[in-house]
Amino acid sequence: EIHENPVTGYLERNVFPVLLQGLEALLGEGQKYGWFEREKPACVPYVFLIKWLYNHNSQQQGRDPVNFHDIPFVKDFLSTHPEHHIPRFLLLSEEQAAVLIQAFWRGYKIRVRPDVQELHRWQREQREQRDIRRSA
Q: What is the four-CA torsion angle of 65, 68, 73, 76, rounded to 10 degrees?
């Protein structure tokens, strides 16, 4: 005769089935957005999992889906423990990052040209002369 631990039984009956569904949803979302193809994923997995578990709570059926920052216990926690800023490069897709890098490079190549540098010097001198006249 095996005596079942009530805590283990509760976890196996109530927690693990829902948690496994949430983890499957997390993996599906990660594959959908390519989170696993990068060295540093562009997501925070616990944010997705908390939001999914809160919105799929079987005891709260019929409730409208809620954003992560609108979940009551998350609001309470973040009021005392501010969230760290997620770097912008983690939020960009590869295409968006490529466009930004290319735009920077094109701008740099133009700015280093001697004729453009001469124009910038001339514009700077003109601005300085106008400021001197205004202040005198």
A: -140
User: How far apart are alpha carbons 57 and 64 in whole angstroms?
Assistant: 11
Q: Supply the pTM of this predicted model.
A: 0.56
Q: Does residue 55 contact residue 65 with C-beta atoms inside 8 Å?
A: yes
Per-residue pLDDT of the chain (136 residues; tens, 9 = 90+): 455 788 888 888 888 999 999 999 999 998 888 777 777 666 778 889 999 999 998 888 888 999 988 999 999 998 998 877 777 767 777 888 899 999 999 999 999 999 999 999 999 999 988 877 666 5
Q: Residues 122, 115: contact at Cβ < 8 Å? A: no
24 C-beta neighbours (distance < 10 Å), count: 11
DSSP letter (8 states) at residue 13: I
Does an H or E element contain 132, and which?
Answer: helix 114-135
